[in-house]
Specification:
By secondary structure, the protein is mostly helical. 92% of the residues lie in helices and 0% in strands. The protein has four helices and no strands. Helix 1 runs antiparallel to helix 2 and helix 2 runs antiparallel to helix 3. The longest helix has 37 residues. The protein is elongated and about 70 Å long.
């Protein structure tokens, strides 16, 4: 991941958005939204390639990969929900932003239910 280029792009987009906000606020929001989406996708692409490498290492070590997949999916849900929530707040919609965060939390809960079920089954098997 090229952190310096990402930070430079973010600073330039922020400055451009601030300049446009004085004259054309609607363009400033478009620039901020596009820059945020671009940065999110750039970082996501870099992280996904690293996660695929990690998955291969775990498989070669004989570690159960299903648990890590759930954790990575949960992490992805959190990042996407936070991004959308921040975007809603930028547009002044704090109420919707709060509902987006709630939806993200519920999605993580639903995603983790199979792990919870396996944990309960394991606990019961130890008690028998």
């Amino acid at each position: 991941m090229e952190l310096t280029s990402i930070l430079g792009f973010a600073l330039i987009a922020t400055l451009l958005s601030l300049l446009l906000a004085q004259y054309k606020p609607e363009y400033a929001m478009m620039v901020a939204t596009a820059a945020g989406a671009f940065l999110f996708l750039k970082v996501l692409g870099d992280v996904l390639s690293s996660l695929l490498d990690l998955q291969e290492m775990l498989q070669s070590a004989g570690v159960e990969v299903a648990y890590f997949r759930i954790a990575f999916k949960a992490l992805g849900i959190c990042y996407i929900a936070q991004f959308v929530s921040d975007l809603c707040r930028d547009f002044g919609q704090t109420s919707i932003a709060g509902r987006v965060e709630l939806a993200g939390k519920c999605a993580v809960l639903v995603l983790s239910l199979p792990l919870l079920q396996q944990l309960i089954e394991l606990s019961i098997s130890f008690l028998k």
